[in-house]
Design brief:
single chain; 999 residues; mainly alpha; 60% helix
């Protein structure tokens, strides 16, 4: 008798055996069904060994209740207590799967399928499953027979008799037998159709790969041919009817539920294509139209049902095409892009629980293995397996994957597949999400043998294995390239030179032999430096491969490493700061400009690190830059040293700006590409303009101090013009300026003029002296009288000229005038002088407007370079920079006197002000802005890629591809980029025709 307030000994025993609701369990044990064995320790121990003792006990009681009579009830109980194999199997199934408990309650004699324990029962194949399904003559009986066969697979799985790979293979064999049975039922229902055609069912995906889940779509492709001279069209219609019926037999829900969906969407043209094709039609499609992912899918193709000879002919015909897929342009990029697209489509709320598709999930292992197979199985048939783990083992044995990496991935894949199996097994539902409820996690952990603290242990192991996959799945492709050129331990397999070449070519390297030499130089040896490089390079190679020029990326990395390899901070920076290595890889492989700037002073690589809160690549403002440059000039012994210091700062800051632009345009693994193209343009324009202004200020200070001490005989100011004045400089822009001076009190005008001219001459000379730093070209051609006029004028001279001789084009040019360096008060008075010219009271007269239009039309016809495609010329082409800027400037000249927002030197600001003032519609303003931003981005891209300025797209394919990557177009989409440019500028030109020319 239990003392009130104290728990019974049974209650305590139940807790100790893993029951979470001992009170309910006590009631079930006291029920009539179990009264005869309630105190039997064997039963309690067996229940405690299951994944969910409460679930197992509840399922057992339901099964006993469902027995047809006392004799059957007693037979089940007696066998359960006496036969350990049955006890472990039956209770194991009941403790892992509520769905199979439901099945047993509906079919109470099916438990007998678990009694047999013969050696042949341990590893059944297709033949054994076909015998198990032989009595099924309709969809309902097929479902019952399928579940009965499934019981034995689950029993072996949960008891540990078979591992996850064997279980997956058995499930695929059961699916094969089921498809054959379903096709047989369909053929029996329509013998006239069966008599007309040959039909082969090709398993794809996990079924084809002999690695099926408990609940998964069974992917198939159908091949049909006419039989015995029948009409091909009629035969294909009959084959389609049979295939459709077979799919419904497996997929439709009946009183016994469904088996699994049969999915034929991997066929040519997907859902839009015919369900059944002839072999020749399949072959024609794959030869002409198939995408890379379709060949990847064919890796797992396997004939499973129907006409076996036709199925084998299908495999024989398509097999050679599969192993040529790696020769396709952008092959690796296409595969990796498909993987990224899969991850991007996962709902944000589910991504951390996604076992299959999430980062570090099953699909990462499968994609990595398939990628390697497609590259290397062309020349090594031992790798041609549709089963992931078999292929991984073959890759390791052949030296295509490091053995230690393969072992870790094998363990991780088995663990994650086991999790997936047990999650699906509970309700026999298709899911890849790790549950959130603690009870579900507890059952899942216990089913995997984690008994001490199931939830905590499960979470820890799951995260550990996904971490391994995350770390290794991309390196898997690159690390053996290093082993191919490194010293390996005795007995360790090595990637052959030919296999390494194949892999590098697949990655997009044009000169694989040179790439291998670079890898050998970087990674061979036993030094700490080589060891760190071997850790970094697998990741860097992946990032280089994601660019338009992997060869340049690797070569530039070798150059930087050779220059900085002995400095203690360089490799530490790349190893320890998350952003630095990826940023460096992007910068080194994006074109010539940024690497050239870096090579001249490799220590600037430090800017690529996370810095203080990730601010290493943040552009510095004009005041900060000017302060640094003036301080450096102040420390210099003469003007040449001072300007050399200023140019050094300029080179470093140009690199910072270019690197930030590249990283923001490409995006990184942790930060997507900047979606606002206008923001990228403004950032570059402001940064380069500020840097140019600060450089001119420093150069002016150096020249004045060296020649005249602290005070020049004349006050002197520099006015920015053109893109410089508009804060819109690109990487390759000259500095358009005007020079203005005013003699100091008591100084003769000639002396003042001589001093001012000497300053300008010396500034131009010093900024163009050949050196490691890029020159800064000063262009003063926008001055009064152009090249024929004096280089420097006094303020009074400007005033006299503009009052008497000023032309309308000069008023237009002065719209961009902005002080950039020198005497601020003098510069301010210059701006006051020109404001009435650029913002004329009452606006422009009709004759002035006509003159501007004539000038623009003449420029379009005369200045376009010979042979250039006008539609792709970013400056002078229709809808390009000139079109947009002249249109905006005409609005400024006509309305700036009354609309204060138009009084700006910046094109985009003026365009926004015109829209706000209703001088242009919102739609037209957006069209012009888009075209201007795009054309500016193209010019910046050309300079970044080629290292020299240009106004048209490059003709060389790799350079054109690099421009495309900068603009957000993936490999192989340069044509789309050009089409988009033409489309954007065509729309802009239509707006220009209306607003500028008044058409």
């Amino acid at each position: 008798m239990t003392v009130p307030g104290r728990r019974s000994s049974t209650f305590t025993r139940l807790l100790r055996h893993g029951f979470t609701d001992p009170s309910a369990a006590e009631r079930l044990l006291d029920s009539a069904e179990l009264s005869a064995v309630r105190d039997d320790p064997v039963l309690l121990e067996a229940l405690g060994a299951t994944a969910d003792p409460d679930l197992a006990l509840h399922g057992l009681v339901r099964l006993l209740e469902a027995q047809p009579g006392p004799t059957a009830h007693r037979e089940l109980l007696d066998t359960l207590i006496a036969a350990k194999p049955l006890r472990d199997r039956l209770l194991g199934v009941l403790g892992a799967s509520a769905a199979l408990a439901d099945h047993l309650a509906r079919h109470p004699r099916d438990w007998e399928a678990l009694v047999t324990y013969e050696p042949r029962d341990l590893h059944p194949g297709v033949e054994e499953f076909e015998r198990g399904l032989a009595g099924a003559t309709d969809p309902v009986s097929l479902r019952v027979a399928y579940r009965r066969c499934l019981l034995s697979i689950v029993a072996r799985d949960v008891c540990g008799t078979t591992g996850v790979a064997e279980t997956a293979a058995e499930l695929a064999d059961l699916a094969t037998a089921t498809l054959r049975a379903a096709l047989g039922i369909a053929a029996a229902a329509a013998p006239e159709d069966a008599a007309l055609c040959r039909l082969a069912v090709i398993a794809m995906g996990k079924c084809g790969g002999h690695e099926l889940n408990y609940v998964s779509d069974v992917d198939v492709i159908f091949v049909g041919e006419a039989l015995d001279g029948a009409d091909e069209g009629k035969a294909l219609r009959s084959a389609t009817k049979l295939a459709s019926h077979m799919m419904r037999i497996c997929s439709e829900t009946t009183v016994e539920g469904s088996i699994w969906p049969v999915d034929a969407n991997l066929r040519p043209e997907g859902r839009n294509g015919p369900l059944v094709r002839t072999l020749s039609s399949h072959l024609a499609y794959y030869q002409r139209w198939a995408k890379t992912w379709e060949f990847q899918a064919l890796l797992k193709a396997r004939p499973v049902a129907g006409d076996s000879e036709l199925g084998q002919d299908y495999i024989a015909a398509l097999d050679p095409l599969v192993w040529k897929a790696a020769e396709r342009e952008n092959f690796v990029a296409d595969v990796q892009k498909m993987r990224r697209r899969v991850v991007e489509n996962i709902p944000a709320a589910e991504i951390e629980r996604e076992l299959k598709l999430g980062p570090g999930g099953l699909r990462d292992v499968e994609f990595a293995v398939q990628l390697l197979q497609l590259v290397h199985a062309r020349s090594d048939a031992s790798l041609r397996s549709g089963t992931t783990l078999d292929a991984l083992r073959a890759l390791a044995e052949g030296g295509y994957v490091g053995r230690a990496d393969a072992v870790q991935l094998d363990e991780a894949y088995r663990f994650l597949r086991s999790m997936e199996h047990r999650i699906q097994l509970y309700r026999l539902r298709r899911t890849h999400l790790v549950p959130e409820e603690e009870a579900d996690l507890r059952r899942l952990g216990r089913s995997l043998g984690l008994r001490a603290d199931p939830v905590a242990e499960l979470t820890r192991e799951w995260k550990r294995h996904t971490g391994v996959v995350r770390r290794l799945h991309e390196k898997l492709f690159y690390r053996p390239l290093l082993d191919a050129v490194a010293q390996l331990a005795p007995g360790e397999a090595r990637l052959s030179a030919e296999a390494a070449r194949e892999r590098l070519v697949a990655l997009g390297y044009a000169d694989p032999a040179a790439a291998l030499r670079h890898l050998e130089a970087l990674a061979s040896g036993v030094t700490r430096k080589a060891a760190i490089q071997r850790t970094l390079l697998p990741v860097l190679l992946g990032w280089f491969a994601d660019s338009a020029d992997p060869d340049a990326g690797l070569l530039n990395f070798r150059k930087v490493s050779d220059a900085l390899g002995k400095t203690p901070w360089y490799l530490r920076l790349l190893r320890d700061e998350g952003a630095a290595a990826e940023n460096l890889a992007r910068v080194l492989s994006a074109g010539r400009l940024a690497p050239d700037l870096l090579m001249r002073a490799p220590e600037a690589v430090a800017l690529l690190g996370d810095g203080d809160g990730g601010s290493g690549l943040e552009p510095r403002g004009r005041a900060h830059l000017e302060q640094e440059i003036l301080a450096a000039v102040g420390r210099a012994e003469n003007a040449e040293q001072g300007v050399t210091a200023a140019r050094g700062v300029r080179r470093r800051e140009l690199f910072r700006t270019a690197a930030a632009d590249i990283v923001d345009s490409y995006g990184t693994e942790t930060k997507p590409a900047e979606p606002d193209q206008g923001a990228l343009v403004d950032r570059v324009g402001t940064a380069v303009s500020d840097l140019t202004a600060a450089t001119l200020a420093g150069t002016l200070r150096a020249v004045v101090r060296d020649g005249w001490g602290d005070t020049l005989p004349t006050r002197f100011a520099i006015i920015g013009m053109g893109r410089f004045g508009g804060n819109e400089l690109g990487y390759g822009s000259d500095a358009d300026v005007l020079f203005v001076h005013e003699p100091r009190e008591g100084v003769e005008e000639r002396e003042a003029a001589d001093a001012a001219n000497k300053v300008v001459s010396e500034m131009r000379r010093l900024l163009q002296i050949p050196s490691a730093d890029p020159p800064l070209l000063i262009d003063a051609d926008l001055r009064p009288e152009g090249k024929s006029g004096p280089l420097v004028r006094t303020l009074k001279s400007y005033e006299a000229y503009y009052r008497r001789w000023s032309l309308v084009w000069e008023s237009q040019a002065l719209l961009r005038a902005e002080p950039v360096a020198g005497d601020e008060e003098l510069a301010g008075r210059f701006i006051e002088l020109v404001d009435p010219l650029r913002y004329p009271a009452e606006g422009l007269g009709d004759e002035a407007v006509r003159e501007i239009r004539r000038l623009k039309a003449r420029m379009e016809s005369e200045r376009l370079p010979r042979g250039a495609d006008p539609k792709l010329h970013t400056k002078l082409g229709p809808g390009g920079l000139s079109d947009v800027e002249w249109t905006v400037q005409l609005l400024q000249l006509r309305h700036g006197w009354v609309e204060s927002g138009l009084r700006t030197t910046r094109t985009r600001e003026a365009l926004a002000a015109a829209r706000a003032a209703d001088l242009i519609s919102t739609e037209d303003a957006a069209t012009l802005d888009e075209a201007w931003v795009l054309a500016t981005r193209v010019r910046n891209a050309v300079m970044l890629v080629r290292g020299r300025a240009g106004d048209t797209f490059p003709s060389e394919s790799r350079e054109l591809s690099a421009v495309g990557r900068y603009l957000g177009y993936g490999p192989g989409h340069a044509g789309d980029m050009l089409d988009a440019y033409r489309r954007t500028t065509r729309r802009a030109r239509a707006v220009v025709e209306e607003l500028f020319y008044g058409a």
